[in-house]
Design a protein that fits this description.
single chain, about 475 residues, mainly alpha, 17 helices, globular
């Protein structure tokens, strides 16, 4: 048993209380390790507020979700009416509901920006691979949470959006129909689907999400934060073992984040009070109509944060499958001709390419669309092992790397825009080109990230007081 720390008999009551807690729970130790004695690089810029904002929005979603559950009825006959009751009759219910729906979009906005910051500054590189993997797992959980929550209002777009997405799982070879049946709990989206989605949205997925957030923060604080220069501040320390280029997270970055929170809450409140539907992007107008299994909306599309992946799904047609077959064959030929492989290695590449081409041609494009949509998220998990650039940060990489990232962002926005538009021949072709670029950006990264000469990275972080 550890010895209890003692304080002076005449010590203030607050000090005595804190000592009593510390002898039983490491409150002060945790505070020091993760706040006052956690040294972060002194050159953080505005890109580094989005992690804290994501944590803030998570709290908003949990608190508003608790209040919504108090009045929501997970019943196909009562769900839509219960949401209307919350909006019209529950005191401040409209505010809680709009905070939750606006918060869902805000969550994806700050998470997308947080992930983009990680990409441009190389925050996924050694030794932060696990931090990135936990972050990608959080993103995957967030998508599942948003999709299941989207069904709960039981409006037209909720119902038919869930019908379309769940039916996609039926295209999985051999187990597809049974898998779709398992997800729905019925042969169509019905009360059973609503109940299981409600259970996962309220209990199961949030528990996993919270666990991953804790793991993400612990992994980050174990290896230390990255910075815009990509310099490891732990490499140079003073006599007391403190990083020369580090400053305590509290109070310096708590104040920094509070400013970011203030700006965010102003924007969040403006949308909340003046445009909660945000032109039909945050809350689709069709979702204010009760779900009708006998009346299909003219155009079914998911919420804006899913639309880039939905575009990739729709882009995967028979034509694109033929293009993929040609690309696999071309890649295999280049590897066999240019690559320095043994005879066994070349045989494995040739057989692998033949099998891949055969599978692409055997299974229907609908299935490969599901694979492409899922693969677009899963491929990000492997980013730490795809990037071979000399410099971590975009600041010191060749200038044309910045253009690559700029085109990547532009393509992502175009795919997102096309995902909310009705299908068209031109849109389909643009989506196919965008899908090929998206995957090419990651799959060819081991090649293109090596090209060009990176500028010398400084030994210490560059910092200009402001």
């Amino acid at each position: 048993m550890a010895e209890f720390k003692q304080v002076a008999a005449n010590a203030p009551m607050g000090e005595k209380l804190m000592n009593w807690v510390d002898n039983r729970f490491p409150a002060s130790k945790l505070y020091k390790e993760h706040m006052s004695e956690y040294y972060a690089p002194k050159n953080f810029n505005f890109w580094y507020i989005f992690g804290s904002l994501a944590l803030l929005v998570l709290v908003i979603q949990i608190v508003t979700g608790i209040f919504l559950v108090m009045h929501y009825k997970p019943d196909a006959n009562l769900a839509f009416a219960s949401v209307e009751y919350i909006m019209r009759d529950v005191p401040w219910g409209w505010l809680i509901r709009y905070m939750h729906s606006t918060g869902a979009s805000a969550f994806f906005i700050v998470v997308y920006l947080h992930m983009f910051r990680g990409m441009i500054y190389g925050s996924y590189r050694k030794p932060r691979e696990l931090v990135w993997i936990f972050g990608c797992a959080i993103f995957l959980c967030l998508m599942a949470e948003a999709f299941m929550g989207y069904l709960l209002p039981w409006g037209q777009m909720s119902y038919w959006g869930a019908q379309v997405i769940v039916n996609l799982f039926a295209s999985v070879p051999f187990v597809g129909p049974d898998l779709a049946l398992l997800i729905r709990g019925d042969y169509v989206v019905s009360d059973a689907t609503l109940n299981r989605f409600f259970s996962f949205h309220v209990i199961a997925v949030p528990l996993v999400l919270l666990g991953l957030v804790v793991a993400h923060i612990i992994a980050l604080h174990e290896v230390g934060s990255n910075n815009p220069d990509g310099v490891e501040i732990k490499a140079k320390k003073d006599a007391l073992g403190r990083p020369l280029d580090g400053i305590p997270f509290h109070p310096y970055y708590t104040v920094h984040d509070i400013f970011g929170v203030g700006v965010f809450l102003m924007a969040f409140s403006a949308i909340l009070f003046f445009a909660p539907e945000f032109g039909g992007y945050f809350l689709e107008y069709n979702n204010f109509i009760p779900a009708d299994p006998l009346k299909t909306p003219l155009h079914i599309a998911p919420v804006w944060y899913f639309t880039p992946y939905y575009s990739m799904l729709r882009a995967t047609t028979t034509e694109l499958v033929y293009v993929l077959v040609a690309l696999v064959a071309l890649g295999a030929v280049v590897a066999l001709v240019k690559g320095r492989f043994s005879a066994m290695g070349k045989m494995i590449i040739a057989v692998g390419a033949l099998v891949a081409c055969a599978l692409l041609l055997v299974f229907e494009p609908k299935f490969w669309g599901v694979v492409v949509m899922g693969g677009a998220v899963v491929i990000m998990f492997f980013l730490p092992w795809l990037d071979y650039a000399e410099a971590k940060s975009i600041r010191y990489r060749p200038t044309w790397h910045k253009w690559m990232y700029a085109v990547f962002v532009f393509v992502f926005f175009v795919l997102g825009y096309l995902g909310v538009q009705p299908p068209s021949p031109v849109g389909e072709r643009v989506s196919q080109i965008g899908t090929l670029f998206y995957f090419g950006f990651f799959l060819l990264m081991p090649w293109w990230s090596r090209i060009g000469q990176s500028r010398p990275v400084p030994d210490r972080v560059t910092f200009h007081a402001h």
